[in-house]
Write a structure and sequence with these properties.
The structure is a homodimer. The first copy, chain A, is of the alpha/beta class. Chain A contains 18 helices and 14 strands. The complex binds pyridoxal-5'-phosphate (PLP) (2 copies).
Chain lengths: 490, 490
């Protein structure tokens, strides 16, 4: 027994060392600690009026609607709840189309249960519905269920990309062109996979447009370093909010064809476009209309997810990728990789099914469904407008028009004194700005450096996919802080 | 428009080529086609008496209780349904402890919604509950939430292992000792990751025991080939059903310490032990009791999952690993890798929470919960007994006693004529056997070769985690087929 206790203590000590190390490691990423210890308090606790020893933190570092107080779509939650607990199917509180949908989905599950494994690329029924959705979205361009690979969230699907990019060192090391500014999670994921990242700059002066000149410039930097194989594009852009026009997409496709680059089109914000003069057009649709020289040859992967769009269900983990024109051999590699991945979350797959096939006019759930979706869309568009107005009135802030997505990425023209102080502290001025914003106003936002920005420029990313009330409070604090900060260093 | 149509057709053609290729590729894995086109028809459709053009297939290739007709645990499904659709929390049909649990879990979710991202290693509240569960299981040995990494199912966690095993070629290429027979999915996953697999044989004659002599023998084969870094163990075993004794575990730990091997203990069947004279003891508990020379040094990762155990929720995707004694640097790599993975399914995390902290005596849900769990346990134990009895009465079949897990892995002593015919067809005799079993009785099982077996021996894996009625039908078909097969080739 004595032995037991003493070794337990040793294990305990050891574990504490581990924890200690972990703390040290985390303190490097100081922000992470904040994440763990202070929860975002926009949410139910706040509404319950619980007193906190510190100001409620507003965490806008994630593109995560529910975290920021947005409500889930009832139809989505009702169908999933009914699939989980089929007795609810006969619950009169749930509309008949909820019941029918749940029954249909359960029939598509092995053993009639969401608790069974599915095929590793997803439930064939859901793959078919996604193919129909894509085809409808693209005005009839055919889509084939066999080319659709479902995964537990699009980031997981992204990891699959690595198979597309063989590992080699030296000048033949695979390179991938990535946008700057861009989606940092994806970049850090690529980093762990031994792929050379070749940044291309988006043009802030033109509203963060993606131009072929910038792609060419990036390509030139790779000479002798690595061999570029793929081009990653986010449309709509994160954090930029830029949405490409048809002409812009055509140009990029032509460029990819000339340079023999694999196109990775991250289109997860495809149904979050609110600019009046711009609509989302998929890479696949444009490709299909460019004639066989392109439509039969350019390799394309397109990503989508239930984390964004009208439902914002980040925690359910549902995403897919569609593979087009892939070399059969590569297709084989992807298929093999998926077959070692085990199956994607069934709940995420159900959410995808609803994304692909939402209630239609005439369905009992339609009025509520469309009112909820419309409300979210209106809120987002309104928030973007209000935020741009507020930002437009602040000294030292310029902001490009935003066409889609969840974010606004204003440029901060920070006073030389602030830049000096930041330099003395060994950081960029926008990082100092964000640290102070967190300390003083408990607003947690990430500086432009996190997403990448041109040397000498500074930015901050704001997520505006939140309730109108939260946004008001966010802007109130942001404005107060910004004026104070600018004054202090002027 | 003409252009549109024609390119659409081209895309269509192209897609069909892809499909064609896919078919060809699949036909290599002939079994997969069966999977896609014939669904398992043990399940609701069968109960509804739907007529099928073919005999209902019994698919026992997966360790998937719900697929095979087992019922979910009500408490699990009620809590998750209530988390998804909080109005149900006030549904009088759900017991009060369901409501309280759902409220507690929702408070642990950002924004009070299961639709929000969580930390990449999981919800801290769930990590804490898992640590308490592990510590209770191990008689008080401390467990620390910070060492617990939650993922979307344990297979995903398994992929993380690769970081533990640096890639190199030649004699310094990382090697991992893996059991034969073993868990094929894991093996094929490792294959894609450039790790050298070093098989060690389990001793069939001793009930598939794991012996240190066999580990040593395996290690000797690596000389000059690769450098062994890790030892993978399944306890309880899949497909063997063997459960290690304390002495056996101690021996393995001593071996790992001597040879400086990292221990990977796959303990996903830890609550599926039914032998009267054997109980599950975790590697961690044994390690903690072996004195500081071991408990402070041997690196150990232990895996667990909601896919097995009392709930069998494979589709929800919830698993975790606990890391013990890891080098802080390696811990850093794992942490970084997780932080690029995005978050695990929130629904899977809720299932883990319930696994860690199930209803207790006195709770309103307890009577139903314990009756359901008890029923499943009794069914499994009963199925194992009945299957062993039936197998024991068949000519040319020998079967080791089974102590835990979902499977029975009998040895088939097939007639020389069957072996000749198989050889002529370029396959092993147990593969021929399984093909014929599928063709003639629509029973889909995998041959021993899929899991690995000693040259010249033949086996088949049966999953017995199914309802008593399904098992009866399965055994009826299996028996009829086996007798016919043996007679045909005698
Ligand atoms: C451009 C982009 N792609 C992918 C993702 C991740 O999506 P998921 O939640 O499906 O992994 C995000 C999340 O913010 C994103 O901004
Ligand atoms: C030994 C073993 N480990 C892990 C798994 C996979 O578990 P999960 O569903 O959590 O990925 C299985 C599934 O059969 C298994 O047998």
């Amino acid at each position: 027994m004595a032995l037991r206790v003493s070794t337990s203590l040793r294990l305990e000590k050891r574990a504490h060392q581990t924890i200690h190390w972990r703390r040290v490691c985390l303190s490097l990423e100081k922000e992470q600690i904040q994440m763990t210890h202070q929860k975002s308090h926009i949410g139910p606790e706040r509404q319950q009026g619980v007193q906190k020893p510190y100001k409620d933190m507003i965490d806008i570092t994630w593109g995560d609607p529910h975290r920021l107080g947005m409500k889930p779509i009832s139809f989505v939650r009702q169908v999933i709840a009914a699939c989980l607990y089929p007795e609810l199917v006969h619950n009169d509180r749930f509309p008949i189309d909820v019941q029918l949908r749940a029954q249909r989905l359960l029939r598509a599950c092995e053993g009639g249960s969401v608790g069974a494994y599915t095929a590793t690329c997803g439930i064939p029924h859901v793959q078919r519905n996604l193919a129909n959705f894509i085809s409808r979205r693209d005005g009839g361009v055919p889509s084939h269920p066999e080319n659709i690979f479902i995964s537990s969230g699009s980031v997981t699907a992204l990891t699959v990309r690595k198979t597309l990019l063989p590992h080699e060192e030296g000048p033949s090391k695979a390179g991938i062109l990535i946008p700057v500014p861009g989606f940092a999670t994806f970049h850090s994921m690529l980093e762990t996979q031994g792929v050379e990242m070749v940044p291309y700059h988006l043009c802030e002066e033109e509203g963060w447009a993606l131009t072929v000149e910038d792609l060419r410039r990036a390509l030139q930097t790779t000479r002798g370093h690595c061999s570029p194989r793929a081009l990653y594009i986010m449309n709509p852009g994160n954090p930029t909010g830029y949405v490409q026009s048809r002409e812009s997409i055509e140009e990029v496709i032509r460029f990819a064809a000339e340079e023999n680059l694999f196109l990775l089109a991250d289109e997860v914000y495809q149904s979050n476009v609110y600019a009046v003069d711009r609509e989302f057009i998929s890479y696949k649709k444009v490709l299909s209309e460019m004639g066989p020289d392109y439509s039969d040859t350019v390799e394309l992967v397109s990503f989508n997810s239930v984390s964004k769009g009208f439902m914002g269900e980040c925690g359910l983990r549902g995403g897919y990728m569609e593979l087009i024109n892939l070399d059969p051999e590569v297709m084989g590699v992807v298929y093999t990789l998926f077959s070692t991945l085990s199956c994607p979350s069934v709940i995420g797959q159900i959410a995808l099914d609803i994304m692909a096939d939402p209630p239609q006019p005439g369905d009992p759930s339609y009025p509520t469904f469309s009112a909820e979706v419309h409300h979210n869309q209106k809120t987002l568009a309104h928030n973007v407008r209000v935020t741009q107005e507020v930002l437009g009135g602040l000294p030292g802030v310029t902001c490009q028009p935003v066409m889609g997505g969840f974010y606004i990425f204003p440029r901060l023209h920070l006073p030389p004194k602030a830049q000096e102080q930041a330099r003395a502290a060994g950081m960029e001025a926008d990082k100092l700005y964000c640290h102070r914003l967190l300390e003083e106003e408990a607003v947690y936002a990430r500086p432009g450096g996190h997403y990448g920005q041109k040397e000498g420029t500074h930015h901050v990313r704001l997520c505006v996919m939140t309730t109108t009330e939260n946004l008001r409070e966010l802007l109130r604090r942001f404005q107060a802080f910004h004026l104070r900060f600018m004054k202090e260093f002027s």
